[in-house]
Amino acid sequence: MLQGTAYLKGTVRFLRLCANIALGFILVLLALSVKNPALPKSLAYGFVRETAKKEVEFRTRNWNSLKSEQFLIKYQDQDLDNVNLVLETINMDFQKVNEILNFTNNAKIPIIVYPDSLSLGKSFGWDSDQSAMGVYWAGVIRIVSPGEWLGDLAQGDAKEVFRKKGPMVHEYAHLVVDYRTRGNYTRWFTEGIAQLVEKEITGFQFENTALNTDRAEWYDLKDMDRDFDSLPSQSLAYSQSLVMIQWLVDEYGYDDLNAILNHLGAGKTLNQAFQIVIGKTLNQFMEACKNSY
Fold first, then answer.
1. pLDDT tens digits for range 156-166
2. Which of 262, 206, 255, 258 is nearest to 234 (CA)?
3. What confidence tens digit (pLDDT) does each residue in 48-93 have?
4. Gap between the Cα atoms of 244 and 221, Å rounded
5. Most buried one in 79, 129, 230, 251, CB count within 10 A?
6. Reported pTM
7. Cα 109 off chain centre by
8. Distance of CA 81 to the CA centre of its chain
């Protein structure tokens, strides 16, 4: 009986200690969130991202794999002839992305190669009319097999076309932004960065719709933040994202872009980060960008 009572008292003390630690952690987060509003969300996001990544790795556990020091590529039998092209292409350019965006990484990054657009879409539960050449989400780069869209190009031509028009640099840049900011970014911001980095490294760029559109018709940043993927003109949304990030880098340089990423990673809002680094609110930034073209 005495042993049972002592055990019960010890358990109660332990639970009280755990509760006090949890309460202390919550209070620290609340204190930090006063100056860094997005920090609690960012800390939680890191856990969710790694959990989702493990879930994808588990679902593809029986797929073939090709490993390098930096990447783990999962693929199915029909892509045996394509997987080396994927690895060669990402190895050619990932370090350049790291240098531009001040990123270092010690963990292997999963790249999942789906045999066709339909199977990639199914992995996200998309409708059959939704498609993409590549998608970054939750620590994983997913791409459609190069064999799906390169056709019968000669090997040398296939390498050049896949590097320039394929998704590798673009999706890897999304991954870097995600990790640098702990998931604390807006859709237009990461799209603008990914397109600019892709343009810098491979020379690829979509049609510059924004510069051929009256500035009064550009999308408001609130709409870009909230409804990016459902905006009527996706061409304008993507192009406008690139133009704004291009202007930011032209005016202030990559050092300031990386400083903004640092502040986002520390839990600042995008508006706060812009004010701290370039001395402009997002609305002031937008107007300055419009007036420069």
1. 688 889 999 99
2. 206
3. 999 999 999 999 999 999 999 999 999 999 999 999 999 999 999 9
4. 11
5. 79
6. 0.85
7. 13
8. 28
Answer for the pair 206, 239: CB distance below 8 angstroms, yes or no: yes
| Strand 134-137, strand 64-67: pairing | unpaired
SS3 sequence of the chain: CHHHHHHHHHHHHHHHHHHHHHHHHHHHHHHHHHHCCCHHHHHHHHHHHHHHHHHHHHHCCCCEEEECCCEEEEECHHHCCCHHHHHHHHHHHHHHHHHHHCCCCCCCEEEEEECCHHHHHHHHCCCCCCCCCEEEECCEEEEECHHHHCCCCCHHHHHHHHHHHCCHHHHHHHHHHHHHHCCCCCHHHHHHHHHHHHHHHHCCCCCCCHHHCCHHHCCCHHHHHHHHHHCCCHHHHHHHHHHHHHHHHHHHHHHHHHHHHHHHHCCCCHHHHHHHHHCCCHHHHHHHHHHHC
Weakest mean pLDDT among 158-162, 168-172, 228-232, 266-270:
158-162
The rounded distance, in Å, linking the Cα atoms of 200 and 16 is: 55
The residues spanned by each domain of the chain are 1-35, 37-181, 185-293
